[in-house]
Amino acid sequence: MDSRILLQLAEKYGSPLYVYDTERIASQYTRITEAFTTVNSLQINYAVKALSNINILKYFKKLNSGLDTVSIQEVQLGLEAGFDPSKIIYTPNGVSLEEIENVAEKGVQINIDNLSILELFGQKHPEIPVCIRINPHIMAGGNSKISVGHIDSKFGISIHQVPHIKRVVENTGMRINGIHMHTGSDILDIDTFLRATEILFDVAKQFDNLEFIDFGSGFKVPYKEGDICTDIEQLGVQLSKRFNEFCREVGKEVTLMFEPGKFLVSEAGYFLAKVNVVKQTTSTVFAGIDSGFNHLIRPMMYDSYHQIENISNPTGRDRYYSVVGYICETDTFGSNRRISEISEGDILCFKNAGAYCFSMSSNYNSRYRPAEVMFYEGEDYLIRKRETFKDILNNQEHVEF
């Protein structure tokens, strides 16, 4: 988005502020669908956990996307946004059988990643088809906290336990209609990803009622100029060819599914914050902003990189700053960053703020969560109000002493 528009939005709605550009969302959605045009049946399910504002979900419905959900609350958001239950897949981890049953009652596609839950669900509800999440024991992902397909991961049923899955299916009479995997986020090497798909194909051949294969996502987007990202077009060429071969091998058309989150919304998001103080120390110049890891925790949690620009002074002389927040702990967004000269009151823009940013925000230090704005067809729309003190107290009960 143009920096002038972002500055206008910061002036109109205040800071800190999240802004989402739907044009960028649409271009990324088109990019992934066009990469797999040779596949007869393709379904993209947006990963709600990346950015769950209901207006963003409604926009994905407009794009003909499905939804990937991980909680009953995300399912409810999807239904509230107008999605047909058949366009929602539910892939929880470590939740109760009761929650899974409650979701199943809504007609949503269930995805199970635990043998004991699979057996319990199959005994009670053999008539409800389910998908199986397989752990391929493939290490992928840019950070240990987001690598979920390796052998020590809590996610999925091990490929070595497929005979146990088949035994449960035989004993309960349940129907397996899908096979799923997710290796982790920030995939760089598509060869590693393709190696995992071969494992999934081998598993899928063992289930006769298969309707779809869900290959997860984790596609990496660039965070700075010259950054490496997942070559989605090359992946489309190679995986489409192999997937079509698989369909011929099994003698029927199967749907190819993906569940991208970051890939679709990361680059569409901008986080705007105002500089409260510029502080010179003996070794560093700090730019302290009106935010902290209560609003954007990814740099502290994942060591993630967000490009930071001073949109109030884009042509100023470059200097080096450590951009920090106002939380009473170390909350450094970037150390020794080259940024055009910063003055108090300037607006800094954090790029790639669409995925896992607002959705991971909190009220830590009893601070308010920021507003969210959607930019759609040249117009801005407030899609979440800035919180107030009333929101902080909303669910707290007064006790008289």
UniProtKB/TrEMBL annotation:
EC number: 4.1.1.20
CDD domains: PLPDE_III_DapDC (cd06828)
Subunit structure, interactors included: Homodimer.
Cofactor(s) recorded in Swiss-Prot or TrEMBL: pyridoxal 5'-phosphate
Chain positions with N6-(pyridoxal phosphate)lysine modification: 49
Name used for this protein in its record: Diaminopimelate decarboxylase
Record InterPro entries: Ala_racemase/Decarboxylase_C, DAP_deCOOHase_LysA, De-COase2_C, De-COase2_N, Orn/DAP/Arg_de-COase, PLP-binding_barrel
Gene field: lysA
Entry-linked PANTHER family: DIAMINOPIMELATE DECARBOXYLASE, GROUP IV DECARBOXYLASE
Entry annotated with the keyword Lyase: yes
Residue ranges of every copy of the Orn/DAP/Arg decarboxylase 2 N-terminal domain listed in the record: 24-266
ATP-binding listed as a keyword: no
Catalytic activity: meso-2,6-diaminopimelate + H(+) = L-lysine + CO2
Pfam family, one: Orn_DAP_Arg_deC
Pathway(s) the chain acts in: Amino-acid biosynthesis; L-lysine biosynthesis via DAP pathway; L-lysine from DL-2,6-diaminopimelate: step 1/1
Homology family: Belongs to the Orn/Lys/Arg decarboxylase class-II family. LysA subfamily.
Residues binding substrate, per UniProt: 298, 302, 329, 356
Domain Orn/DAP/Arg decarboxylase 2 C-terminal stretches: 18-354
One example GO MF annotation: diaminopimelate decarboxylase activity
This protein's UniProt keywords: Amino-acid biosynthesis, Decarboxylase, Lyase, Lysine biosynthesis, Pyridoxal phosphate
